[in-house]
Amino acid sequence: MDRHDCGGWLRISIHDERVNEARIRLSHRHHKPYVSISMTPEQLKTVYDMRNQSPSKIWDYILQHDPNTELTEKQVQAEWTRINQDHWRLDTDQVKSATMLLERLEGADVEVFPITPRENASAIAFGFKEVLTGLGETVEEVLMDSTWKTNALGYELYSIVAEMNGQAVPLAFMFVTLLESAQEGTKGALLRQFIQAITHHCPNIMFTLSDKDILEIDGFRIEIPNAKHQLCYWHGIKYIEKRLGENRPPAAYDPRIAHAVFDFVDPTWAPGVTMSWLEDGVHPDDAEISEPPETLKIKINLATLTAEAISIPRVKTVSISFFPFGT
Asked: Which of 18, 195, 291, 297 makes a 20 to 30 Å CA pair with 153?
């Protein structure tokens, strides 16, 4: 869009004694009219004629026939939404509209999960009937994730996705919102009901994954107690990289507690306290520092074919000196 240096200025003056009054002076020189980027009648007709296709395909079509257009993809998306909104917007109330739409599709395409109403909370849960019926018993691994502020009403969207032949297959979704006055534990109870509905269709789940949301973790552990739960790989790497990038000391650490859970953890180790020949936290295999040379010394009795170690180095690759005695 062409722009014009109008040389305009705006000045606002306030008198020291009359602070409730302001003097405003504005200077502006006329310039050429801005280029209109509203959709032309031809473009509007194109979007309407292609309303049954995705907005991205409509946008590709417009660029193919008019590569220098001032139009934007967001305008195409907005017009496509306006034309098609009557198919899914059945009421001006978003929650009521979504409920009506699911009721219309229930039985053929979706299954609406019964969620117990709770005070100061709202939840809508549903699953894809064809996927749950056709693949449910073969599902062994599921993952739960969520998004924040999905719509204008601030609903959270929870999804449960299955792993099938290395691909993600969406099974079900739940919209949840809570008021500040909702009782503690309300969201956790809603999530457990959501997971419980999935277990009716997927009874053979062996692995569950999530991020570090304790409500998701507890929900899986309670409703699918025999499955192994773990953080998904992507979230695990994300948290490790984030923590390593922070310039702050680690939290208080009691190695005895860690050792009680995982016995391979050295209970005598503590960050910044336990030191070796290298700085704490540096593994010899990862350091570009050669360890001080040491020699493994062994006495060998050739007559009795016995050996006795004099000193033992701390490296895997060693040189050996023999000190034979006897005949």
From this structure: 195
**Residues 211/203, Cβ–Cβ less than 8 Å:** no
End-to-end CA distance of the chain: 100
pLDDT at 315: 46
Domain boundary among 177, 208, 238: 238
Stated as kind and residue range, the H or E segment containing 246 is none
Give residue-wise pLDDT tens across range 147-182.
877 777 788 999 999 988 888 899 999 999 998 899
Q: Above 60 in pLDDT, residue 256?
A: yes
- pLDDT at position 126 is 95
Which residues fall within 8 angstroms of residue 205, CB to CB, at 6 or more apart? 139, 140, 141, 142, 198, 199, 224, 227
CB atoms within 10 A of CB 271: 13
Indicate the burial class of 232 (C-beta count within 10 angstroms; 0-12, 13-18, 19 or more).
Answer: middle
Residue 318: pLDDT band with limits 50, 70, 90:
very low
The pTM for the full model equals 0.59
C-beta neighbour count of 141 within 10 angstroms: 16
Give the pairing of strands 121-128 and 320-322: unpaired
Give the Cα-Cα-Cα angle 285, 290, 292 (nearest 5 degrees). 120
Q: Does a structural domain hold residue 183?
A: yes
CA distances 270 to 33, 236, 250, Å, are 70, 23, 10
Residue from 200, 110, 213, 109 nearest 158 by CA: 213
Q: Is residue 32 part of a domain?
A: no
311 forms beta bridges with 297
Burial 203-225 (b: 16+ CB within 10 A, else e): eebeebbbbeeebbbebbeebbe
Which range of residues forms the domain containing residue 213?
109-238
